[in-house]
Design the sequence.
């Protein structure tokens, strides 16, 4: 079950959040070759974020998954940065992404781990 967390100091409506999450979820699912129904995405508004000694709008993305292929590591950053620019108007150089490959034994759904 891949997970995407989007954190930003840009304020957007719930409708805009839903659109952003839907589009970003599709990018993650495609990059990881996973069905969309297995991908979870979340929005977290951060009232204050400081980068480069200023509080201009910025985004931090956290993608976690069991198995992240190299092709995803190459393609996901650009696709997600473009998505953030379209939905939030945040420049690509203010979008940061961390991709964490989590071993299946450390990831569970319900009462059972995946490994």
Sequence:
């Amino acid at each position: 079950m891949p997970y995407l967390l989007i954190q930003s100091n840009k304020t957007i409506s719930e409708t805009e959040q839903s659109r952003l999450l839907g589009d970003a979820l599709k990018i993650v699912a495609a990059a990881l070759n996973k069905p969309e129904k297995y991908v979870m995405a979340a929005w977290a508004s951060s009232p204050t974020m400081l980068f480069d000694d200023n509080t201009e709008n910025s985004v931090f993305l956290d993608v976690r998954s069991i198995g992240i292929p190299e092709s995803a590591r190459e393609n996901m950053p650009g696709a997600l940065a473009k998505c953030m620019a379209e939905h939030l108007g945040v420049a690509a150089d203010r979008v940061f992404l961390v991709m964490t490959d989590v071993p299946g034994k450390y990831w569970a759904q319900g009462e059972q781990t995946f490994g």
Summary: The chain has a mean pLDDT of 94.
